[in-house]
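Task card 7
Instruction: Convert sequence to structure tokens.
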Amino acid sequence: MFESLIPAGARVPAPHSHDAFEETIYGLDGVCTWTIDGHERELGPGDFACIRRGQVHGFQNDGGVDARFLAVATPGVFGPAYFRDIAQILAAAADGPPDLAELGTVMRRHGLSPAQTGAN
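Output:
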């Protein structure tokens, strides 16, 4: 279980799925738009979504205020280390585009499968 802060205007992470765990998201503050298997859903304080293994999902904060959510991975194989690793890649990008190959490597190392897009 971990809490995540999503800054206003943020679009993270790249759409992905999990093969080894389910994820339940519980909104704490602000509003994030989650896209789960192509369906958009806004999650605000008290709202929740259950993401099954294999469902492609991602989220963004299009609002003007930061948002926070609590995520519970079952079984507990995913956690804060993923976000620390991603933060290092984003910091290294120095406000430019991050290294997408390195992002993919970190995602896979933590049990996330980057979604295939038309650009791949």
